Every structure is written in C-alpha cells, then in structure tokens.
Amino acid sequence: MKDDEGAGYVLFIVTLASFLPAFVSSAINVALPAIGRDFSMDAVLLGWVVTSYLLAMAAFLVPVGRLADIHGRKRVFFWGMLLFTAFSLLCALSSSGALLISFRFLQGVGAAMVFSTAVAILTAVYPPGKRGWALGINVTAVYVALSLGPFLGGFLTQYLGWRSLFLINVPAGLIVMALIFWRLEGEWTEARGERFDVAGFLVYFSSLVALMYGYTLLPAPSGGAVMLLGLGGMVLFYRLESRSTAPIVNFRLFRENRVFALSNLAALINYSATFAVGFLLSLYLQYVKGFDAQGAGLILVAQPLVQALISPSAGKLSDRVEPRFVASAGMALTALGLLLMTLLDGSTGLFFVVGALVVIGVGLALFSSPNTNAVMSSVEKRHYGVASGMVATMRSLGMMLSMAIVMLVFSLVVGRVQIEPENYSLFIKSIRILFSIFVVLCIGGTLASLARGKMQRDRSSR
Hints:
Elements: H1 4-39, H2 43-71, H3 73-92, H4 97-125, H5 128-160, H6 164-167, H7 169-183, H8 198-217, H9 221-243, H10 251-256, H11 258-274, H12 277-288, H13 293-300, H14 302-320, H15 323-341, H16 350-377, H17 384-413, H18 424-451
Helix pairs in contact: 1-2, 1-4, 1-5, 1-7, 2-3, 2-4, 2-8, 2-17, 3-4, 3-7, 4-5, 4-17, 5-13, 5-14, 5-16, 8-9, 11-16, 11-17, 11-18, 12-13, 12-18, 14-16, 15-16, 15-18, 17-18
C-alpha cells in the first residue's frame, strides 16, 4: 500500500466515502419544509432531524476512533459505510418523524465511523511530504459535497421528493464498500491489544447528549440545568480518563502536546464562528432580499466553491511552510470576511455579499487542511484514529455551538416568532450581533493558532 498506485486507490476510496455524509448533511436543510409537511412536524422536531445526526457524530467520533486504533481502521471504516448506507435506506422509508429522527441518529453513527477513520487512514498511507496534499484533496471533497448539497438537494426534493436525498446514498455506499473490499489492502492497528474504556464511553456519551439537549432548551432555566449536568459529566469523564490505563481520550495529548491541543482548539473556534454563516445568509437572502431558495443556494455556493478550489493548494503549501502560519493567516482572513458581514442591512448589494463569502471561503481553505495536517502530524501512529476522531469531533461540536449561539441570540433579540416584514429590523440586528460575536471568536482562534508552536514533522514516522 506504500506504492503510488495503492495510495491513489486509498485516496479515491476515502474521498468518495467522505463526500456522501457531507452531502446529505448539507442537502437535508433544503428538504426540511417538505419533511415537515409530510409528517406534520413543528420547528423543534424539524431541528432534531438535523441535530440528531450532528449529535451522533459528536458523541461517537472519538470512541470509534479509539476502537479503530485497537481493532483496525479498515474494519471500522467498512462497517461505518455499511451502517451509513443501511440507515440511509431506512431514512428514505421512514413512516413518521420519530422514526426519521431515530434513523438519522444511527446514520450519524455510521458517518462518525467513516470520518473518524478516513483522515487516519490517509495519514498512515501518505508520508509527511505528501500528506498535506492528500488531506487537501479529502477536504476538497467535503467542500464540494457542501457546495452541491443545497443546489442538488433542492433539485432532487422538488422533482423526486425528499426521500431521494437518502436513496441516492444507497448505490453510492454499495460502490464504496465494494472498493474497500477489493482495493483497500492491509490494515492499521497500532494500538492492537489495548483495552477499550467502556465506562468512560458511557459517561462521555451521556454528558454530551445532556449538553446538546440542554442547548436546545435555552434560554429556559431547564436548558441551563441540563447543560450543567452535562458539564458535570464531562468533569467526571476527565477524571476517569486521567486515571485510566487505556483512555478513550488521551488527555496527555492535550496536556503535553501543545500543537495538538491548540490546533484542536483553533478548529473548534473556527467551526463555531463559521458553520452558521450559510444558515444566516440563507434566511437573509430569502426574507430580506427576496430571493427564492434556488437563487439563495446559487449565491451561497460561492463560499464552498472557493474552498474546494483552494484547499488542495493550501494543503500542499502546508507541506512546505509551517502549517501554523498558513492556518493562522486563513483564520485572520476569515475574521475579515465575517467583519464585512457585520455591515449587512436591507440595502446591501449582492456583489458585497458574494465578495464577503469569497473572502471567508479563501480563509477557510487556508485554515482547514493545514490545521488538520498539523494535528495529525503531531501525534504518534498509534494515536492516528483518536486524533482523526478528535479533528472531526471539534468540527461537529463547533457546528453545534455555532447553531446554539444563533438560536440563543434569535430568542433574545427577535423572540420565538416567525420572521415577518414587521420584524426584519430585529432580524438584521440579530445577524449583525451574531457576526460580531463570530469575529471575536475568530480573533481568539487566530491567537490560539499562532500560539501552538512549531510542528514536529518527524513525529508521525515513529
């Protein structure tokens, strides 16, 4: 598998597998109104159609990464693809909103198994000099999926119904599984024989569920109480893992590996500051500017399209230039784009919006693959699965935190009402507040990125 042809097969398989979960997570947003009509679901339940998937991703990414290090990344990768494909089919066949939410959660478990092993497999196959390029290709696939999601998802929903969004994953998933079976040679089990911490996993899972469920209840007092319970569970998890001889999360990596700790912190901040951009602008373009869903989707494509075009070059650049400089420049550029968004009002021109999206897209491209390269190159081979899972966990947690900030500000400024012309001024005020918060987050992320120190490039070869 060390030859170029074998590595090329690995890159193709992993990239295709990474594309599918990213596509469905992006496309589902445009189908929510149709799903709501079919199952008579209110806004909160519709939110759980999205949240259940992200929750499963955040809860399982690190634990299954640990399992992959012990039992084999190829094995976990294959079973993850199988679960994702099977529950995609069941999502399409759902007869109620409750079943759809349940199947979306289990679909997210499969996606977590895919994402937690994909980057780890690429890191194991590609040497440091080519790793950033390969990771850049993988990131590009995710960005292309995110780009196609709203546009293609809207087309499929309009002409074939929302169930088609899940059905198209079935043949694609079968193809990936066949390629894994026939072309993905070898196995990676650098932590074979080590113990899996079941108690730690149960505490981690229940604590994260409490945190995520609590945020959906905010600003009600019960939301804060549930979140405090989740935070208490996380403290218990930290204590358990610090004493465990075979922890799910090796907190020594955070305490003793500055590059690993601050790179993950930078990723969490980055996704917290940027994930909600598409959501906010979709509402702004359709409510305030009067675009239809397809028109808004075409405008929003600007950001992920730029990311897809630049990410491979950014990843390759991080093979030659210290990743923290490339990633930090990207975070700073993202902050600039978000700062431009704080100027939005009812008369803002389309050119300005697209220009700000392009700036954010360039910034995210410069940040994502170099930052991932820094994380994966800062740990030993036996920790690749956990490190890969941690990168994806930071992404999922950041997405959840981003939406939590949005919903909290909306509740406080606009209130729990539909967005109508009479409250457009409050809506615009809320998104300007939100983009201001995101700018501050990005500035903090830039400082964390710069403070991580020099990456030890020879660590991964141990």
